[in-house]
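Researcher: I'd like a structural prediction for the single chain below. Treat it as a standalone chain; there are no partners to consider.
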Amino acid sequence: MADMVNTPMLPRTANGSAWAPLGEPLFRSLWVAAVISYTGTWMQNVGSGWLMTQLTMSPFMVGLVQAATTLPVFLVILPAGALADMVDRRRFLLITQGWMVAAAALLGIFTLLGNVTPWILLGFTFVLGLGAVMNDPAWQAITPEIVSPAQHAPAVALNSVGFNVARAVGPALGGMVIAIAGSGVAFLLNAASFFGVIFFLYRWKRPHFEDVETGRVSDAILTGLRYVRGAPLVRCVLIRTGAFSLGASSLLALLPIVARPHGATGYGLLLGSFGLGALAGAAVLPRLRSTLSVDAVVTIAILVFAAMTFAAGRVHAFGWLELVLFTSGTAWIGILACLNVAAQTMSPSFLRARALSLYLLVLQGGMAIGSALWGALASRVGIPTAFLWSAIALVAGLVSVRRYPLTSQELQYAPSVVRD
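Model: Treating it as a single chain, here is the predicted structure.
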């Protein structure tokens, strides 16, 4: 067992480059397609949040947009993880990607026709989130199948970098599209963005793996839960993730209201600032990790994020808000990079999707609960006070989990392949 103190967030590989996985054609093709898809997702997020503020200014309803996106995690993430360990992940992902295309396209059509109400918007957002949650465990679990074993850890980190490239570009692009053509067009562009990933999956010749579990889905879920119960490393990752996600969800959930005076383009630019901050954080993480332990990085990043959450409720000038969101993004990637690398390496290959589904359950479930909680609180006491309590919750959560350090096992990343 190796402590994550010695595991950089953008690990260097045999050729000395943290970007080496992009030299492998299979991983590079999927990475580019994924960045395009992520960009469409961020355009969708901007469109949903902004459209809700046009339909109602209730902080509770605006907060429910984020909650509706992640609420399906409570319903299907565990079966999704079990299925991803039991069936052909390629075919499973083709189904979930097609589901999301249909949901985004239908919402776009309804919006362009002017037939969307707050509850219809929440309904379609929920359906789209359902597809995303079904997709996530299998999506994360295929990384070792498309990259060589030596490149797995940096490939995990590069997936996070790709997500944040899209986070930097997608919101600003979405804001401009919404300002020019409306949210409906942004939803249709999101539907189109999935086709790059679908094309990759359709052409991908996935090898046959021998460690596929058979039987009932419920039995597979129980097997995963028993593994988690007996694995201290997994419990540490899940507890740290839950403590962070509950408190951290307020900023992005209530940002549409904070950004309302600055228009749709301003909202997109603020989310883009968050994404640029995340990219900057990813760039400096290796240097920080050379001098600080993983727990020190996470502690500092959570304190910074809490301070920026508090500041978001107090500053009103657009330039200062951009700085607050940029700094928040820098802290955000420092936290999630540590958690995600730990989650990817905390289980053997035949349980990987189920272990990841539990990690996603805690992360996204915490965000869903927190989004609704902070939205309801903001409706009663106002956004600045809700942000204050959210910052306090982050600090309190940080203090309460000091007994659960993050560590990482040296595991066999690549599943065993049955060769002809």
